[in-house]
């Protein structure tokens, strides 16, 4: 996209395209730019004015994904309460990202951007959450933060796959995901 200052209308159109792309590609990773333009209620020419190449759109989606994930973590209040309670809130917030999660699971190259990279390490806020759970007795001390993070992501993937395969309500599937994550990280007897 050119270095033109975005007006309110341009910013809204750009965001509508990104939102539509997340929704459409989250449901069908092979969707065309034309399908995205239809979903965004813009012409294909308009879409190309904002994103001349598919790779430009994917870069914008990656940036939007990072923004949404950070906002979800903020809403989860990772520093509040027990470690397990914070993990539960984070799981709920991430689950609500729906189409974005589906897209990330189906297009893992979106998260290969260095800004997403953690070199196999957890976000420091997540590590602190798990360590707090170890200290307060709500997360099994034998489970390292990277393992807990893997459990979280695998259950989010399982949940969204289950929604897509069965048509079960998001509310019910979130209940199942939370029950599974709670049980997986709880100290054993």
Q: Label the structural class.
A: mainly alpha
Give the helix tally.
9
- Tally of structural domains: 2
Q: Characterize the biggest β-sheet.
A: none
Low-confidence sequence ranges: none
Approximately how much helix is present in the residues? 55-70%
| Beta-strand percent range | under 5%
- CATH architecture descriptor name of the largest domain: Orthogonal Bundle
- CATH fold-type name of the largest domain: Tetracycline Repressor, domain 2
Strand/helix succession: HHHHHHHHH
Mean pLDDT, all residues = 88
* Rg calculated over all Cα atoms: 18 Å
Q: What is the general shape? A: elongated
Number of strands: 0
Oligomeric description of these chains: single chain
- CATH homologous superfamily classification of the largest domain: Tetracycline Repressor, domain 2
The CATH top-level class label of the largest domain: Mainly Alpha
Kindly report how far apart the N and C termini lie.
57 Å
């Amino acid at each position: 996209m050119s270095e033109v200052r975005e007006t309110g209308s341009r910013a809204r159109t750009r965001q509508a395209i990104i939102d539509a792309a997340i929704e459409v590609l989250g449901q069908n990773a092979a969707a065309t730019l034309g399908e995205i333009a239809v979903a965004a209620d813009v012409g294909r020419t308009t879409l190309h004015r904002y994103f001349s190449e598919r790779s430009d759109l994917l870069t914008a989606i990656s940036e939007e994904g990072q923004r949404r994930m950070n906002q979800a973590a903020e809403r989860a209040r990772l520093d509040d309460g027990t470690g397990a309670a914070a993990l539960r809130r984070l799981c709920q917030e991430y689950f609500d990202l729906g189409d974005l999660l589906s897209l990330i699971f189906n297009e893992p190259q979106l998260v290969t951007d260095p800004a997403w990279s953690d070199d196999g390490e957890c976000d420091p806020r997540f590590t602190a959450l798990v360590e707090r759970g170890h200290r307060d007795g709500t997360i099994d001390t034998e489970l390292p933060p990277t393992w807990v993070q893997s459990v979280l992501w695998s259950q989010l993937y399982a949940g969204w796959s289950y929604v897509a395969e069965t048509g079960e309500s998001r509310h019910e599937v979130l209940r199942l995901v939370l029950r599974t994550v709670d049980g997986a990280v709880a100290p054993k007897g």
